[in-house]
Amino acid sequence: MPDLTVALAGNPNAGKTTVFNALTGSQQHVGNWPGKTVEQKHGVWRVSDSEIEVIDLPGTYSLTAYTEEEVITRDYLTASPPDIVIVVVDAAHLERNLYLVVQLLELPLNIILALNMSDIADSQGVRIDTDTLSEHLGGIAVVRVTATKGDGLEELSDQVLNLRETIGALAYTERGP
How confident is the model at residue 151, as a pLDDT? Predict the structure, then answer.
């Protein structure tokens, strides 16, 4: 049984499946067309002494569901939320990805923002101040990632483990000693 469940959410073509493959060692197919990921994909991510179940959700632009993919994602995140949601965004097109991020922040979810394709953003002259972005998004962790190269995955792992400790401490406080 996994120690933690982490879901990957984000817009289509933000690189969720690439992040999934990088974390789990899976070889899921990546596609740049609508309907490619129409179901949840599950994998195991081993971090330190933890076994984390990772769920790659279908891409969605918002929680207002119009397509089968969007319904799957919305229903999963609202009906049976995971321990942590890593919202994968395309760093080179951050503005158009933030609508979903803001909607997810309105739900009672533990969120980490992964700025995927940071290398492409850098090459296009896009500079993102992760500390300021984190502050504007209520203090969530913001991590620069380039999943195709494995860059930022160690920091992402650290942030997941840190958030797990915070969640555990809060649960302990609510139950009492």
Answer: 96
